[in-house]
Amino acid sequence: MLILAKAALGLGATMAMAGVYVFHEGVIRVDVDEHREGGAHVHVWVPATVVSVGMHFVPKDQLNHVTAEARPFLPVLREVAKELERYPNVELVDVTDARDHVRVAMMNGKLQIDAVTGDGDVVHLCVPARVLRDFADELEEKAPGV
């Protein structure tokens, strides 16, 4: 019985450490609600680590195509991502017209994009700033000649 308890403790500790590693960069949240007949309601929460791990599984020809197209913008993307981390709580854009509202802000170190249409459709995206910087660095590393 003691061996079983030790094995369970070891397995539990391993699972806890794996969970801490997977969620150490934060969570990417995407919420989409369409308020119409047959509208979609999508709510996805994904560990941000998936982005850096997923970059290793992108087919090389597709990654080369993307980096070739984005090459002129990669240094700017990296600098913007790095600077966003310096401003953990700031409103970047807030636009409202007669029907729609879009807000882009940093909230607690996360880039948060909220859009609401006049039809009532709602889109929320929340990405940790660190993930943006890591993504920009990874793309720049894979794009020679930048």
Question: What secondary-structure arrangement, pairings included, does this model have?
Answer:
Layout: H1 2-22, E1 27-33, E2 41-47, H2 49-54, H3 60-70, H4 74-84, E3 90-96, E4 101-107, E5 110-116, E6 122-128, H5 129-142
Antiparallel strand pairs: 1-2, 1-6, 3-4, 4-5, 5-6
Helix pairs in contact: 4-5
- Stretches where pLDDT is under 50 for at least 5 consecutive residues are none
- Residue-averaged pLDDT: 85
Roughly what percent helix?
40-55%
Q: How many strand segments?
A: 6
Outline type: extended
Largest sheet: 6 strands, antiparallel
Number of helical stretches of at least 4 residues: 5
- Provide the spatial order of strands within the biggest beta sheet: 2-1-6-5-4-3
Would you give an account of this structure?
The protein has 146 residues and is α+β, with helices and mostly antiparallel strands. The chain has helices spanning 2-22, 49-54, 60-70, 74-84, 129-142, and strands at residues 27-33, 41-47, 90-96, 101-107, 110-116, 122-128. A 6-stranded antiparallel β-sheet has the order 2-1-6-5-4-3. Strand 4 (101-107) and strand 5 (110-116) form a beta hairpin. Helix 4 runs antiparallel to helix 5 (129-142). The model has no long low-confidence stretch (mean pLDDT 85).
